[in-house]
Structure formats: structure tokens, C-alpha cells
Amino acid sequence: MITGLFKALNHTFAIPTPTAKCDIPCNINDPIVAQVAGLSLQSFIDLIKELNDKPQLTAADNSQLSRLTREKDTLQLMLKKKFG
Known about the structure:
The protein has helices at 2-13, 31-52, 59-83.
């Protein structure tokens, strides 16, 4: 019923069909993803540098260094695959 009403109004008043165009070209990824990933990578590097500046690393420090390095490397690979 409503569709018929709209068709009748459109036929009576000759309402033009709207068109839209995207403001950005196709295949452009959201840059915020790359920005957040880059900032995360920089945070990993900063934390690793802090550990490297310590004169003596404890077992906990070594474990943390290992985890940070693994996560940094994983993030780097993900960024390389996604953004080349």
C-alpha cells in the first residue's frame, strides 16, 4: 500500500531519483587501522628499549622481553601483509 502511494506521488510530481557517490576512491582502507597499528608497534619498541637499558635483567624481565619481541614481530608481519 505504501509502495503504491510512493509510486503515485512519484508519477504525479516526477521526483528525480537520487544518486550518490563516495567521497574517497574505492579500495582505500581506513587509515586509522594503520595508525593504531603503527602506534602499537612503537609502544612495543619503547618497552623493549626500556628493558634493554636495565643493567641486569631478572627472569621476569627476560620473559617479558621474549613476549614483547614475539608480539612486536607478529604485529610487524600483520602490517606487512595488510599494507605491504
